[in-house]
Amino acid sequence: MSWEMSGKYVGSCSCQLICPCPVDGVPTGPDGECRGVNVFHIASGRLDDTDLSGVDFAFCNWFPSNLTAGGWKVGVVVDDGASEAQASALESILHGEAGGPFADFAALYGEWLGVERGSVTLTDGDNPAASVAGRASYTFEPLPGPAGGATTMKNAMFGFAPEFRIGKGPGHSDLFGLEFDGVYGETSDFTFASEMAEDAPRGRA
Fold this sequence. Notes:
It contains two helices and 13 strands, in the order E-E-E-E-E-H-H-E-E-E-E-E-E-E-E. It has helices spanning 84-94, 101-106; strands at residues 3-13, 34-47, 50-51, 56-63, 72-79, 109-118, 120-122, 129-132, 136-139, 141-142, 152-154, 163-173, 180-193. The longest helix is centred in the middle third of the chain and has 11 residues, at 84-94.
């Protein structure tokens, strides 16, 4: 299988500022866990001959400890405007069956919670907001840097991008029974593929 996708994502999780998961630290959410959801808009993408352009999806996670300890719970919601072929292609990618960075993740999955369908939306701009199936909603609020610029994290061990903006992610989610109130947030453009450059960062869920 050959696949690629690029676009934008925005995430929210239960960790306190600043979430330690990108550097493989112990989560700082309630009970020492990280519960999160990342919503992706695929501006351009494909799996073999299946076009994924324009599809939105949510990647939901429960991390019981630092990321490399494994035991993750992962569930996905694909926008109900996507075709069955597109939803099936995304499941193959995100479950790790199609290779690439999500195949690396699959070795750390403890429980695959499956794929659901529902409305998934992501707004653009400096303060992007996401909503999922009426059961998750949050907004990214950037932490200001010098002279009003954005605060970023760069070259993290786990990242959906080589550099991403960090801030607050207030909101609430109860997808897959992984209920949490959002505290930390992040956002960036992303590019994933079945064949990634050797020096590319590992994607972070």
